[in-house]
Amino acid sequence: MATIVFCSVNKAAQTATRRCLAAHSKRVSSAGDALSHLPSVHTLLPGARWFSRGTGVRFMSHGTAGRSGTARRGSLALRGAAAVTAAAAVTGLLANAQHFQRAEMATRVSSAAEKEEDEGTIVERCRGFMCLPVTDVGVLQARKGDMRTRMELMIMETQAEFCKALQEVDGGTFKVDRWDRKEGGGGISCVLQDGKVFEKAGVNVSVVFGELTEEAAKQMRSRGKVLKGKDGKLPFCAMGVSSVIHPKNPHIPTVHFNYRYFEIEEEDGTKQWWFGGGTDLTPVYINKEDAIHFHKTLKEACDKHHPQYYPDFKKWCDRYFYIRHRGESRGIGGIFFDDLDAPSQEEAFNFVKSCARTVVPCYLPIVYKHLNDSFTDEEKNWQQIRRGRYVEFNLVYDRGVKFGLATPGSRIESIIMSLPLTARWEYMHEPAKGTQEAEIMEVLRNPKEWV
Question: How does it assemble (predicted)?
Fold first, then answer.
């Protein structure tokens, strides 16, 4: 069992902490009723975990994409199955109206928890999802050890855990929209609009497969991929979970995350695979404590696998979420990586799992901290202007949007879900010197090191 140690946390902080943890403490128990206990698609479900685990990796390569059954370059120095802490889970919670205090969860993960993925039946895990997975449960059971199955289950769990946390703070209900793609696969879109806290909150899962279009293949080749199709055809499978949250209060930041997996089969039958993703924060106003909490939580997850992951992927994030035509970043960054195919498929997957499990502890303490902050019409107007920049980046530069629009049968509603309900463009707007608005512009034009 985990031991939670609160350091000088006042009553308000303890209440917020208990509320946050309670939403994630229930576990699925009985397996007897199988799928009969799956809820309707409009029900939010328990099943969250507030700890991280995984094998540490002392290796990183940005070389060619991984190939099944082939040797990979580099040497591995694996850390043993030692104690794995979950300090990131509840760090940075409120100690008073102004400051975070550290709430450390330190635990040695039990052997039963470490083996959960291997020993838990597919049916038991499905009971905690928003609805049935995209892939038929029978197919998932038949290929339980396959990476496609393991990744699909992981992204379904991430979706359910984040939706549950958001519903807990907002009080609203997610609409769960299951959709099919005639070319192969489909997805599950969970959207909350016009809530008490969130103007628009979307958490999507997609699992698609078929033939890669030449336009999509061209994008991948531009990143150094060597893709050899048969008769011009490239069978592929792509899956991921993605989310963008647009709060009503301008003092609560927008957050985005995306974690994904690709497989491509070449003409000789070999498969290329890689992972990608990241998490980043887009505040309207700079709060240094929020920025430090967010980045520190991500760093702790990265450091379990390689000490160079956080600094490298933080820089990558700053470069990627850059609006070139404006000369400014979209937000204050986080981590971003793509084409991750080393040191092995197992270790890359463990790293992605660790990142996905930071989503709630990265963001929810910040939401609770600013939940009752007052704001002016001028501050709301500035939020609308910054949202305009968000729209510009997503439509002009975002790789996921481009891939989705280039893939036949893609669901446009799910691709455009990342955009806010409202935004604003003012001609030649520039904040006055010395204002809080000018302060964040300085950070966006000159990215900072937060930890």
Answer: Homodimer.
